[in-house]
Amino acid sequence: MIASIKRTTFHRDVYEPAEDSFALVDALVAHQQTWQHSPPRLCLEVGSGSGYVITSLGLLLQQLGMAVQLLATDINQQAAAATAATLAAHGVWRADVVLCDLASALLPAIEGLVDVLVFNPPYVPTPDDEVASGGLAAAWAGGARGRRVIDRLLPLVPRLLSARGEMFMVAVHENDPAELMREMEAAGFEARVALQRKADEEQLTILHFKRQQPHFPAKRPKMLSV
Amino acid sequence: MRLLCHNMLQCHIKGVVNGYPLKIEAEKVETRETDYEPDFLRHIFPRIQWDALREAAAAMGVDDLPESVSEEMLEDESFLKQFHHALLEVHLEQGALVCPETGRKFVVSDGIPNLLLREDEC
């Protein structure tokens, strides 16, 4: 079970769950089995909007029997309120919502604690001056190549994530997902495309970044005794 | 806002050096029971700033946390339950968080702390 649209709060100033939100949740659903081996302890969504995605993630992990703690941030007051309302409407109580820019108010204390980071950025290419104009525009206006906000968050990811941490994010063709993957690989992450989907006028990609695990030398084959 | 969250928040106004911990001014506090998960408590304990938690809890009317703590206490169930209650069950619904350096107040409304900065603070 994931969050229901009927019980998701959104209105004029909050981004309504749409194809990009659904694609992100679908990627999380497809990934859930791997969490059974190592349950996440703390998940963070940056820019949680209506709260549809973080609520769905909370419900997924709850059904797996995991007592995960959730944190969500948004820069829009209406969106933060909507996130809190959507979490509550689904009975997801192990969660806090903070009104702030990206994860600014949580740093440095949250460093190395985030096991799963979720990010549906404002990815639509727009003139740069539309990026910080507040309200609903903050949910989609991404500046040049739709990268202004993405490029502010990605450098923080190595600080935010725990040793086993991973991140799921939405990108569209104009953001150059291949370049985002190369950047994260250079920062010490394994990068892969978790899902790709053609939506209305958008080529949606869900990227999955995971910290490269320390390399253990392969076991030497046993010598045959003569 | 639970004290787990409070323990991670700090004032990030440009130039502020001692923006942690934020002092709590509580107007409305709610207590909601939640599942007791000792594994999570042991996991998070090394990262909790104990003095900040203890002071915050006291501001919310929870004043039974011990002054000093050690890893060994994580074997003691009665301690873990106190820790659990303070960290995860007490919610600040209305009030403010005050920066210890500048006195700037960040309002907490309907359980959501507003840490947004004004343009001249960035």
Automatic annotation (TrEMBL), chain A:
Q: Where located?
A: Nucleus
Q: Which UniProt keywords apply?
A: Methyltransferase, Nucleus, S-adenosyl-L-methionine, Transferase
What's in the GO CC field?
eRF1 methyltransferase complex; nucleus
Query: One MF term from GO for this chain?
Result: S-adenosylmethionine-dependent methyltransferase activity
GO annotation (BP), single: methylation
User: Where the protein is mainly located, per its record?
Assistant: nucleus
Query: Highest taxon of the source?
Result: Eukaryota
Query: Which family does this protein fall into?
Result: Belongs to the eukaryotic/archaeal PrmC-related family.
Q: What's the protein name?
A: Methyltransferase small domain-containing protein
The organism is: Chlorella vulgaris
